[in-house]
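FAQ: What does the model actually see?

It sees only this:
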Amino acid sequence: MMTQQTLVSLRRWPLLAYGSLLLVALAARAAEPPAATPSKELPAPPATPALTAIDTGVLIQLRGGKPLPGIGLVPPDLPAGAGLEMVIPRAGQASAQALLTGQKLEGITARVTALTGANGAILPADAVSVRYLTGPVHAQQLAPQPVETQRQPILVTVKVPAAVAPGIYRGQLQVSCAGFTGQLPVQVEVMEWVLPPKEQWRTLAGLLHSPDSVALQYNVEPWSDRHLALMESSLRLLAGLGGRDAKIYLIANGIENERYSMVRYRDGKPDFTCVDRYLDLWQKTCGTPRTITLYLWDNAKRKWGASDRLVDIYTAEKSVQVTGIGADGKLTNFPAPYYTTPEAGAFWKPVFDGLKERVAKRGWKNTELLLGHPWDSWPQEEAVEFLQQAAGLRWRVFSHAYNYPKPDAQGRLLMPCGAEVGWQETCMPVGDHRDERATYNALMKRVYSITTAGRNTAVMGQPLCYWRDYPATAIRKGMEGISQVGIDFWDLPKQGDLLRNGNSGFEPRHRTAKAITAPGPNGAEPLLQYLMLQEGLQVCEAWWQVRANGNAAVDKAFDNLLAKRQKCMNHSITQPNITDQGRWHDAIRDLYRAAATGKAPALPTRSELPKTTGGEGGNR
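And it is asked to produce this:
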């Protein structure tokens, strides 16, 4: 049995918005039996090396609400001899961990023997990889060679080909170091259900990528061949999570801290060279985008207005900034004609037309262009009216969703200024959204998308089980996925006034994870959080299929499990809480079985979803 050692993760709720919720949480916490005060130090490593299996989804990374220094892994008390267990759909993947501890670990080697099943079936050798974790607990990197000397986590990842026969495959993880040889059993249960190709995933993963962060991290010329080669790593990782939402920065120095606009201007005319290179790279790595957000409205430029709401304060004298190219090739930002001025039409209409032409030329008939990116503020009606006439596009909005945007009688989602929203990202933490859990049929009738940005909660200090559960807990609250998690907004030294507002580096929005990758020799490399999120997203695809099949029993059972796990993570995280509320493998095994045996046809691809009432391309 697990110890009663309490590992607490406190959420920092904004006082006015979440005061009542906090009181409820504190009352529930007070009703729990007292737990032992956690030790401030990790236990000393044993004199004789020991090898322990760890359930990745159970592993807690926090002690007393703070990340542990170094390799601060706290392995749970699993039964002696417990091994590494994975339940994986065909065409899917999963990871499991072991922990090698000792006072002085030298010469570590680890390998997985052949994973064999019934009737001589065997998983291909290249389907299995062994890597070593290093770095702080909130950002563990995957290394090809061991690096730690007292606590070395070992990660085994299995990628199952779609054509592999379902069944149970068994082998051994064999580990050795100076003075020690040990092994743990490895069991991989390959389910019958086949994970759809990522371009058909129903779960939205609106993750953010920063071209400028990559250029500054590697000190390369923006949009050079080397820059594009480095960006390719980021975009391939984004595609690995089903990310199909691109962004084009039409203004400079917005809240996402891109230094220059991607459309440049020579002698007053738009130059689309950077955009063309970006879209070509996107098509190569991510395929056809679901949406392309045209970033042209900066919610950092705001003030408190009437009725305590945020309103736009751009003016003709203090407009958005764009980037010009001088005769000497130097880049200079200058104010563009604002959207309410007489000069706006001649300046902005060729930009929108040029972008639409590029989307059409690539054959992206179902890609929707969106305008962005309001937060709790929104543009004034005059600006919205101009942009509707010049661009004719819907908006992507990031807000708390207390009272806006709201659906109208026709089911369209509208901002108070009258602009139609095609995609709302709510920064309310998962579990606090005002919507009740929507049925599958209700979601399919929506003409807009809604995701959660997990503000305050989708942060790197969360336990691994959070990152794996995160997409599913969003779906159970009536949303279609997650967004505003950064792929590569790495911390960078402050350069002049580039990183304003006291930012330690580039960031997608306040209090969300900025990077679930780390900069490697040739671009972004995944952190452990990335792999957990990837597993969670593939579970969501099975859940969508179960809901479409109408399998109410499995649907409800999985929903109940998520509710218990979510309550645990929202208030107080303890090892017993996580494990006593149902084994994750049992739950997803039932989910994968139900997805494979349903009578409903496969889910439609996004290009087959219902048409919207507006926007270029018109699809969700």
